[in-house]
Amino acid sequence: MSSIDNIKMINIPTVLDPRGKLAVVEKDTIPFSINRVYYLYDVPSDAFRGGHAHKKLSQILVALSGSFEVYLKDGKSEVSVTLNKPNKGLLIKPGIWREIGNFSSGSVCLVLASDVFDEADYIRDYDSFLEYKKEL
Predict the structure, then answer these.
(1) What is the CB-side half-sphere exposure of residue 71 using CA atoms within 13 A?
(2) Which position among 36, 49, 52, 85 bears the catalytic label?
(3) Dist CA 90 CA 81 (whole Å)
């Protein structure tokens, strides 16, 4: 069963150069095959994204620009993680409730996902999430 203890930061290798830095995401960087990539941008600072959990999908969230908070719950514990570095990714495994908020101006949240969109994989109601966790 996934818990917030399983959440970890992934270091994204960076090539340093006087002309600028280059962050590289390759198959050995990510602990799953990437089957979907999307990003959030122009999110108002008072808005929240997420508000769901996944049954099977794993994700890595990266703050490509700016910063935002990721609020995570496993049904027993909760934690808040600030993402603000483009060479750090937050690995979120299945069975973790997530919300994203407190977006700074100009922030961009990149999401690397282990599978394509599947509505059946989502748990969008927190009480249903708690029941799901009890069944595991």
Answers:
(1) 11
(2) 52
(3) 9
CATH at 119:
2.60.120.10
> Rounded to an integer, what distance in angstroms lies between the CA atom of residue 114 and that of residue 111?
10
Query: Which residue has tokens 């917030």?
Result: 4
**Which tokens belong to 61?**
């969230």
- The torsion angles phi and psi of 38, rounded to 5 degrees, stand at -150, 170
Query: What pTM value is reported for the model?
Result: 0.94
Number of domains in the chain: 1
52 is catalytic: yes
The per-residue pLDDT for range 20-47, each reduced to its tens digit, is: 999 999 989 999 999 999 999 999 999 9
CA distance 111 to 39: 6
Neighbours of 59 (CB within 10 A): 22
* Domain enclosing residue 81, as ranges: 4-135
Q: Which helix (H) or strand (E) holds 127?
A: helix 126-135
Residue bearing tokens 């150069």: 17
